[in-house]
């Protein structure tokens, strides 16, 4: 293939796509990006065999259609370090060459046929969600997923798609985030009877490709895989195997006391109190009394802290301890002017934070 | 016709011999003990062909009067016991009156003896239980017993004898035990109390070659050196402990001098070598954290207590005893050793390859020279001197509103010039100290430091528990699950909540917050592995220790982590602050010392 590209445009596309490249050396060819240039259009592909992306590159003038393999890290470095607006690209299976007015790079290449193919989106059963809504839902849940060391089935986000609503659930066993938003089903697409879990990596990759606007995203869940279609990209992922826990069971059924909190001052107070927690044993005590919240921490090596925050509260005196990171991580994904409610039963029962009608966050206190 | 009949004495003795006399070493043991009980000062043992041809024991004890000679071979005939009450105050080695009868039943024995008061002695022979007439014998005062052709009339037994060298090994071991037990104590306080004030002169010969010749004046430490070589005797620390009427004295070895079996843990109760699981356990517990798993400490311990506190009449060869207060003795042994070990600087010495060591070759202990000066007392390593520090903390005192007593004081500032530290292979730190070159395993040291920090934190307050919103099912085998549930309460105390889910599945409902970076499943599995591997129920403390080392291991810097100079300095600095930095929680050494002296010697400067 042969093309003239806009450096900035190619750089941003490469950065987005390279998020799918595996961190470990499993299969050497996966450390590359594959470009497919057809008449007037160029698509970049990257995958780690579990998750993959096809991304349209803009600002590219194709002189000779074809396919090419680029070493991702080197290509990114070139695009980042050079300052020319336009660069000429030329590639065949043995080498790829990038030229500017005053520079030239030549890299070894590989046979494009060796690169695993990724599905395209050609479905007629799918859900549509606006990009801004989906982006917010992902941001509000993905941080609560479990890391790889934990239970495998929790290393992703559960998708529930009803006719008009989408629900995303993530948990690591200690806290659980549930975000919902409007979605429109087409062709009877639903997740009823299934519990598809999309890997964290795919969710993050998708989120980076979403804008805040009104653009629509199409989602198609199939028995073992999921496809997302945005205007510019198709994100493909295999689903996480294993049974996601039944999140409805852990939702508190009793109604306790309700406390109204403002996200900004609350977050500030928790972060201040958390300064005096120990690295590996974080605990902040939340004491609710009339119109006041006192946050206290006492680290064995760090020291002590005490922070008072005026709140509107007229219920009984309550004391409950949390790992402050679990609270702060949730507050970080809320808009700064958000108001949230906290439902508490006692010091040992899960505490439920809510923001608006569409977001719930459940945390298990420390005992 | 009646079927049940009283067995003839000959048969009875052969049956008894099966229990008491297992192999030539058993004969040696019985005869040596008889000689000791006779008040001998010198005992000569001669062996031929591993004892299957000849065992001869000659002593200079009180002897047996001629009239008693035939009775010596009768079973349950003894001079050491008069009534049943005496059984509870046994101060002699033997008391049952079985040994000679048993030996006489399975060998050809000649017994010659003369008491001091009589002008001449008498002799008698016993062939497979058949006694000859006693006839006069003209020898020195004392007793001389020859046991020939052991098991000649029990061919199966004879067939089971091993090679002469193996049997000789067992005899040496028996000889060693007796020789260690009957030695002049190196503790003045013992000698003053009349305990082990006198040593026995013992000699062991095999096929006309002297194996050991132990003079009476040879103290315990020298005897240990004679039997086990200077490698062991140079690494011993003396211990002494008291509790009520019980006294514990002896030597324990540096953890570096460990062994693959517990055989080098010698325990003597009132001068008698015994095995005891409880006290053996106490020794191992005292070394906990200093030895790697599967390694055993070396110890020579003498426990003296009033005869009524211990029942020796529980085992055919008296190799086991019962204590009235075994828990108290466990504590005595444990705390005495533990305290002693804590007092030592246990930095492992770098072992120089033996090829470049100009001193004598290792291997079999050299034959003991009677006139050699006693070996020097073990010179314990000089205590590690912490570098001087400024006494005043640099940071300002904490704000008044906060209780200053519970706020940990900032680490004291360091005034000395930072030690030279270099990192090798991203895994080891080499530090220059006054004593020499210290090679530190960065992971092991950091692990130990963290271990102690965690321990202190746990001791300072309740353990934080993170309950799970969604309990985590962990599949175990039925045995593991049952074991885990058995310890449910103890685990809950540590913050690990478990519930039965049925069918070998355990639900983890909470875990210690300190272990947050590990998955609850991994925590439970580590604990379960530990529970299963233990024969006895681990105490709460042991479980605790294990969990803590798990935490420490996880959080510590790993081998392969490159450290900045500041990190290295901090790590080495913290080394001084921890209680026991010589071994990581798993018992591996954290540091090796290549002493300056060794360096200089290697370069032939001294």
Report what the structure shows.
- The complex is a heterodimer of chains A (367) and B (606).
- Chain A is α+β, with helices and mostly antiparallel strands and 367 residues long.
- In chain A, 19% of the residues lie in helices and 41% in strands.
- The model of chain A has no long low-confidence stretch (mean pLDDT 90).
- Helix content of chain B is 31%, strand content 22%.
- With 606 residues, chain B is of the alpha+beta class.
- The A-B interface holds A 146, 149-151, 154, 171, 173-176, 245, 250, 278, 280-283, 298, 300-301, 303-304, 306, 321, 323, 348, 350, 362-367 and B 398, 401-403, 406-408, 453, 456-457, 460-461, 464-470, 472, 510, 513-514, 516-522, 551, 555.
Give a brief outline of the structure:
The complex is a heterodimer of chains A (367) and B (606). Chain A has 367 residues and is an alpha+beta fold.
**Structural class of the secondary elements of chain B?**
alpha+beta
**Structural class from helices and strands of chain A?**
alpha+beta
Number of E-state strands of chain B = 24
Biggest beta-sheet profile of chain B: 9 strands, mixed
Mean of the pLDDT scores of chain A?
90
Counted beta strands of chain A: 26
What are the SSEs and their pairings?
The complex is a heterodimer of chains A (367) and B (606).
Chain A: E1 2-6, H1 7-18, E2 32-38, E3 41-47, E4 51-57, E5 60-64, E6 66-71, H2 72-81, E7 86-91, E8 95-99, E9 104-108, E10 126-130, H3 131-142, E11 156-161, E12 165-171, E13 175-182, E14 184-186, E15 197-199, H4 200-208, E16 216-221, E17 225-229, E18 233-238, H5 247-250, E19 257-262, H6 263-274, E20 284-289, E21 292-299, E22 303-310, E23 318-322, H7 324-332, E24 339-344, E25 351-355, E26 359-363
Antiparallel strand pairs in A: 1-5, 1-7, 2-3, 2-6, 3-4, 4-18, 7-8, 8-9, 10-14, 10-16, 11-12, 11-15, 12-13, 13-26, 16-17, 17-18, 19-24, 20-21, 20-23, 21-22, 24-25, 25-26
Chain B: H1 9-20, H2 24-37, E1 42-48, E2 54-59, H3 69-72, H4 99-106, E3 108-114, E4 121-127, E5 130-131, E6 135-137, E7 142-148, H5 155-160, H6 164-181, H7 188-193, E8 201-206, E9 209-214, H8 220-228, H9 230-233, E10 236-243, E11 246-253, E12 265-269, E13 272-274, H10 277-286, E14 299-304, E15 310-311, E16 322-323, H11 326-342, E17 348-349, E18 421-424, E19 428-432, E20 436-441, H12 442-460, E21 465-475, H13 478-486, H14 488-493, E22 497-502, E23 505-512, H15 520-533, H16 540-555, H17 565-575, E24 591-595, H18 596-602
Parallel strand pairs in B: 1-8, 12-14, 17-24
Antiparallel strand pairs in B: 1-2, 2-7, 3-4, 3-7, 4-5, 4-6, 8-9, 10-11, 11-14, 12-13, 15-16, 18-19, 19-20, 20-24, 21-23, 22-23
Helix pairs in contact in B: 1-4, 2-6, 10-11, 12-16, 13-15, 15-16
């Amino acid at each position: 293939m042969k093309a003239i590209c806009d450096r900035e445009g190619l750089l941003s596309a490469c950065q987005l796509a390279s998020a799918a490249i595996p961190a470990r050396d499993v299969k050497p060819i996966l450390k590359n990006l594959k470009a497919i240039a057809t008449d007037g259009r160029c698509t970049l592909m990257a995958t780690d065999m579990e998750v993959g992306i096809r991304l349209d590159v803009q600002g590219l003038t194709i002189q000779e259609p074809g396919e090419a393999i680029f070493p991702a890290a080197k290509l990114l470095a070139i695009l980042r370090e050079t300052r020319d607006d336009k660069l000429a690209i030329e590639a065949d299976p043995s080498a790829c060459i990038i030229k500017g007015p005053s520079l030239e790079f030549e890299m070894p290449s590989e046979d494009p046929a060796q690169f695993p193919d990724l599905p395209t989106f050609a479905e007629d059963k799918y859900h549509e969600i606006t990009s801004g809504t989906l982006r917010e839902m992902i941001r509000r849940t993905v941080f609560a997923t479990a890391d790889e060391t934990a239970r495998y089935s929790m290393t992703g986000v559960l998708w529930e798609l009803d006719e008009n609503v989408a629900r995303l659930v993530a948990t690591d066993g200690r806290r659980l985030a549930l975000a919902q938003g409007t979605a429109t089903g087409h062709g009877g697409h639903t997740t009823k009877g299934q519990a598809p879990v999309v890997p964290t990596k795919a969710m993050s990759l998708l989120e980076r490709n979403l804008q805040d606007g009104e653009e629509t995203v199409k989602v198609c869940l199939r028995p073992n895989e999921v496809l997302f279609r945005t205007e510019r990209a198709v994100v493909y992922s295999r689903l996480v195997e294993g049974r996601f826990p039944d999140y409805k069971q852990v939702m508190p059924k009793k109604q306790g006391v309700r406390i109204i909190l403002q996200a900004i001052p609350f977050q500030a107070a928790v972060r201040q109190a958390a300064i005096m927690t120990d690295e590996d044993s974080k605990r902040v005590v939340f004491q609710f009394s009339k119109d006041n919240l006192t946050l206290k921490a006492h680290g064995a090596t760090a020291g002590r802290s005490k922070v008072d925050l005026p709140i509107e509260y007229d219920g009984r005196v309550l004391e409950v301890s949390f790992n402050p990171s679990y609270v702060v991580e949730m507050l970080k994904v809320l808009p700064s002017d958000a108001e949230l409610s906290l439902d508490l039963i006692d010091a040992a029962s899960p505490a439920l934070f809510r923001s608006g009608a569409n977001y719930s966050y459940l945390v298990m206190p420390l005992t | 016709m009646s079927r049940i009949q009283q067995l003839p004495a000959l048969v009875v003795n052969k049956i008894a011999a099966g229990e008491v006399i297992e192999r030539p070493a058993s004969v040696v043991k019985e005869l040596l003990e008889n000689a000791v009980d006779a008040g001998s000062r010198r005992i000569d043992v001669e062996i031929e062909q591993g004892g299957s041809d000849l065992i001869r024991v000659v002593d200079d004890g009180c002897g047996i009067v001629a009239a008693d000679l035939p009775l010596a071979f009768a079973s349950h005939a003894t001079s050491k016991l008069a009534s049943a009450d005496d059984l509870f105050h046994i101060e002699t080695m033997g008391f049952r009156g079985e040994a000679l009868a048993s030996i006489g039943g399975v060998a050809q024995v000649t017994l010659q003896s003369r008491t001091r008061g009589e002008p001449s002695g008498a002799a008698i022979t016993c062939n497979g239980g058949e006694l000859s007439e006693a006839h006069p014998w003209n020898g020195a005062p004392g007793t001389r017993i020859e046991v020939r052709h052991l098991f000649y009339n029990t061919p199966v037994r004879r067939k089971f004898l091993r090679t002469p060298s193996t049997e000789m090994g067992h005899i040496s071991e028996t000889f060693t035990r007796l020789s260690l037990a009957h030695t002049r104590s190196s503790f003045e306080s013992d000698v003053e109390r009349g305990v082990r004030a006198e040593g026995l002169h013992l000699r062991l010969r095999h096929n006309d070659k002297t194996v050991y010749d132990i003079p009476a004046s040879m103290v315990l430490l020298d005897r240990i050196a004679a039997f086990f070589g200077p490698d062991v005797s140079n690494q011993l620390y003396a211990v002494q402990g008291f509790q009520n009427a019980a006294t514990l004295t002896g030597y324990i070895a540096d953890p570096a001098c460990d062994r693959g079996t517990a055989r080098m843990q010698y325990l003597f109760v009132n001068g008698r070598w015994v095995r005891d699981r409880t006290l053996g356990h106490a020794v191992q517990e005292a070394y906990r954290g200093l030895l790697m798993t599967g390694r055993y400490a070396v110890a020579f311990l003498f426990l003296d207590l009033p005869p009524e506190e211990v029942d020796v009449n529980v085992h055919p060869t008296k190799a086991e005893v019962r204590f009235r207060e075994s828990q108290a003795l466990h504590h005595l042994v444990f705390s005495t050793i533990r305290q002693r070990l804590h007092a030592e600087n246990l930095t492992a010495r770098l072992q120089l390859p033996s090829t470049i060591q100009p001193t004598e070759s290792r291997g079999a202990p050299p034959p003991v020279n009677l006139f050699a000066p006693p070996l020097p007392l073990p010179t314990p390593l000089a205590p590690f001197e912490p570098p001087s520090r400024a006494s005043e903390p640099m940071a300002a005192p904490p704000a008044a509103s906060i209780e200053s007593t519970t706020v940990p004081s900032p680490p004291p500032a360091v005034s000395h010039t930072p030690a030279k530290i270099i990192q090798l292979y991203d895994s080891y730190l080499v530090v220059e100290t006054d004593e020499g070159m210290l090679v530190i395993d960065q992971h092991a040291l950091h692990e130990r430091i963290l271990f102690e920090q965690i321990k202190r934190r746990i001791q300072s307050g309740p353990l934080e528990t993170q309950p799970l919103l969604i309990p985590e099912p962990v599949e175990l085998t039925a045995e593991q699950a049952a074991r885990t549930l058995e310890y449910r309460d103890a685990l809950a105390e540590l913050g690990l909540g478990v519930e039965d889910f049925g069918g070998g599945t355990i639900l983890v409902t909470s875990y210690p917050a300190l272990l947050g970076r590990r998955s609850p499943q991994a925590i439970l599995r580590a604990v379960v592995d530990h529970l299963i591997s233990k024969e006895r129920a681990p105490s709460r403390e042991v479980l605790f220790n294990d969990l803590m080392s798990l935490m420490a291991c996880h959080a510590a810097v790993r081998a392969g982590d490159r450290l900045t100079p500041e990190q290295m300095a901090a790590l080495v600095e913290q080394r001084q602050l921890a209680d026991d930095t010589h071994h990581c929680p798993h018992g591996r050494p954290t540091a090796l010392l290549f002493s300056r002296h060794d360096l200089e010697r290697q370069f032939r400067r001294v």
